[in-house]
Amino acid sequence: MEKRHPEVFTAQGDVDWSRRTRVVPMEVLSMGMPRTGTACKLAMHRALEILGYPCYHGLVLVANTADCVMWNQALDAKYVPGYGQFKTSDWDKLLGNYAAVADLPAILFTQELLEAYPSSKVVLVERDIETWYRSFNEGIIIPVWNPIIRFLAVVDTRFIGRLGSTSARWTKHWLRANSRQEMQNNAKSVYEEHYAFVRKITPPGRLLELKLGDGWEPLCKFLDKPIPDVPFPRVNESAALQEKMGLIVKRGIRTMAIKYSPWVMAIIGVGIIAWATSAKASFST
């Protein structure tokens, strides 16, 4: 388990941002929505790394929750009037070790990243919207609003709490949602807006639209890379996310056990077991 999800077991510290800078050029922006299929996101992250592009995927944030500080600054700069700018030098501090990005929260910054890195190329994978919505609802919306996870975010401030502070921002501003119902109501329109916007602002010749199952050839041709002698990665994203969410919850419980008495833990544990049982079915898509 630890080998499959080492980031969940990583000690979460702080970062001296003044010492961070860009060490590799930013070359690829994978701007497809989260939960766009088995051949995307986690698989795209691995594919880009096989091609030699260190990739910042949303789950990388789990191993580096101190990054939430700068993601929150970027989100506030984008959505909060008068907050200030998030400059190229700031992106270099946040993403300087990576040549590619994918998934949330990076996909919210297509325009900003294109402006910061004008030679970068954009890869866009799209999925049937109804199929996508079912997966997004079960894999993202329901966990975001799960009361147990939201409670653990208050208790485990250096891990779940940090992640929650970032997801709360993109939920409110990007999905225009202050409740699970609003997030569900707005998801499809945000999906359509996102793809239309990426296509509109990406300069000609710098956009590749992939379909599930396209494999290596179009991606390698677009990036001018030889086709690897290994199969294109395929990841059961639902199963991987379900397993990871379970580990995150367990980590929060351990933190809570240190802070609260055994009798409180017993009461809360019953609720968590009930949630974990129902969550197993909800991640099946």
Explain the overall architecture:
The longest helix has 23 residues, at 237-259. With 285 residues, this protein is mainly alpha-helical. Helix 7 packs across helix 11 (237-259). The chain is built from twelve helices and five strands.
Blueprint (SSEs and pairs):
Elements: E1 28-30, H1 42-50, E2 55-56, H2 60-63, H3 68-79, H4 88-95, E3 100-102, H5 110-116, E4 121-125, H6 129-144, H7 147-155, H8 160-173, H9 180-201, E5 207-210, H10 216-223, H11 237-259, H12 262-282
What is the gyration radius calculated from CA atoms?
19 Å
The total count of helices amounts to 12
**SSE pattern:** EHEHHHEHEHHHHEHHH
Report the sheet-strand fraction. Answer: 5-15%
Q: What strand order characterises the main sheet?
A: 2-3-1-4-5
> Which blocks of ≥5 consecutive residues have pLDDT under 50?
2-9
Multimeric status of the protein: single chain
Averaged pLDDT: 83
Kindly state the percentage of residues in helix: 40-55%
> Can you summarize the main beta sheet?
5 strands, parallel
Supply the helix-strand structural class: mainly alpha
Number of strands: 5
Distance between the termini: 21 Å
Principal-axis shape equals globular
